[in-house]
Amino acid sequence: MRPVRRGVKPAGLTIKRYSDAWEPLKNALGEYCSYCEKPLTDVIEIEHVKPKKIFPNEAIKWDNLLIGCKFCNAIKGTRPTDDLELYIWPHLENPLLLIGYAAQAPPFPRDGIGESSFQRVLRTISLVGLDRNGVSNPRASKTDNRWVKRDEAFVIARNIRSDLEAKPALMQVEEYAKVLRLVIEKTGFCSVWWTVFEGFAAVRLMALDAFPGTDRDRFDAEGEALT
Amino acid sequence: MSELRRGTGLGDRLRADYVTCLRLENFRRFSSTEVSFARRFTLLIGKNACGKTSVLDALSINLGHFIPYHTGVRLFPFGVADVLSQRFGTGRSFHFETQFPGIIRLSAVFDGLPMDCSVKRTERRSSLAASQGLAAYQVQLTGSVRGGADLTLPVVAYYSPNRLRAVSAKRAQLRKAGSRLDGYVRATEAELDFNSLLSWWKTEEYDAVRYQTESIPLEAVRLALQGCIPGLLGNGTHYDFKLEELIVNIDGRPEPFSQSSTGFRHFIAMVCDIARRASLLNPLLPTQEVLLRTPGIVIIDEIDAHLHPEWQRRAVYDLIKTFPNMQFIATTHSPFIIQGVPPSAGETMIVRLDDMNRIEPQEMSIEVAAEYVQGVQNVERSYVFEEQSAKIIEALSPALESPGESAKRLDLLLEAEPFSPLTKALMELKGIALRQPESDAE
Lengths: 227, 442
What we know:
heterodimer; A: 227 residues; mainly alpha; two-stranded antiparallel ribbon; two-stranded antiparallel sheet; 35% helix; globular; B: 442 residues; alpha/beta; 6-stranded mixed β-sheet; 5-stranded antiparallel β-sheet; 14 helices; disordered N terminus
């Protein structure tokens, strides 16, 4: 989960129905799920940080809106999240400091983050079911392909990293950099790129920039995560 | 034969019982295979349907050899359906024939002596067969138990979360014969039943009130819980007679056992069950020694089931520390469990069943551990290039010797067929990388 910034509510936007917000939200955050980071291809859903059923007033507030894929959104459902501090939210802090990613494994709490953050990570992971995979959830995971796509992103990113390690000059080839950025955009999963390209600032920064709305203030010039 | 009659109970020598090697012939999907085990902990990993549970089932079918024969303990059944069914023919015309006999051979150490045994399934029946030495040992063992001899009996137990269920109250009733051998009742049936745990705990607490001191089994169970479950206060766990419920106390917060999470209940019930069996089997050992000295073979399917990552990381370590003389054999899909297997010169081992690769446990990162689970090379192909993958792999095959040739083939393929935008971009990217001359970085 990358940190995001929606920016201020666009001037002139009045949200009467929450669907009015879709276009500006997409421009601000890109067509990726704010939780699992999967590229949205078919179903596009607006995600209410606080569920619209329980907090009807929040349904049309710009600050309550993110983008959710159909799985994250459905699993989260109407679970009351009124105490935001119990969870990790991509627009409120830098989740990359707390949530670790690894190939073929569910996201996990990073080492040494303290008990309360540890619990927040576990809560967040189960809130949107990020730990679902073919083993933990054989039935649901037939349609819920978030874990497959995340693993795919790992394989793609690692493949590219090994090419780049063998031939570092590739990054200077204009065409390569252009196509790489396209690959990153199409693959999605900012956190996976960020994780795989640890110690490889050029690609890390490219990945942070490739996805609209990444909160760059939460990273330093080398792409390291800041609070 | 006299060497078999060594008194082991309270003496100095630790009794050792463990399995070393399992050979399967015509069992489930294996026509012939061999798996070996480490003394303290063996972790079986591999993809779904690579036979992890089959290996565990085969082991527990053979565990009957550790239990004195003819004691009425029901053993894990070896049915006709467990024998390999081989397919003949091609296409739509084929038939299946069951390959009798199915044989499971086991090499194991019984009370310090290596011996062989097997279980065979023919069309008509399944039968245990033991080597001469083991047969003699069995006669000896049965006689010793009956004669009240001072010897330690090994625990055998098989746990599987898939078969976790609450057994009906009637079935849950333990045999109340008072024999040591009660410790083997339902040991290999792969079920954990909460009801009998509850009724056992209740009886023990009644008893403790009556004699104003707790029994050794109850003390041993408390001690084991403290060892295996972080934050659980062994002394705070008690049976509440008003609620008719076991109350567990974690970090000073008491809560009813039935309302705890599944993973928690499962793990607690398993630890309790091991400790309880150990003390039932060896009623004359003092509390401390029950856990330290009792040998045994404990088989756990999906040891990670329902446990959260922090627990998974320490589960293996806690188990083998709490029951230091037992042998554990477990399966998992979790990198956290793999990461948590402590390295210990040959005493612990990870076996990948896909390719029978043995992996020495070591300090490894979660990523490395994750890669072991499924073997990343195979996955790589099928994942990256979902469609037309065979063609792309074919195009990439000369990449090492002549990258230019590979790049050319990729270009041709790109012209010839439509690809998804991502696959197309990946192929273009690979093409540029292949054309880039080697080592011009300096």
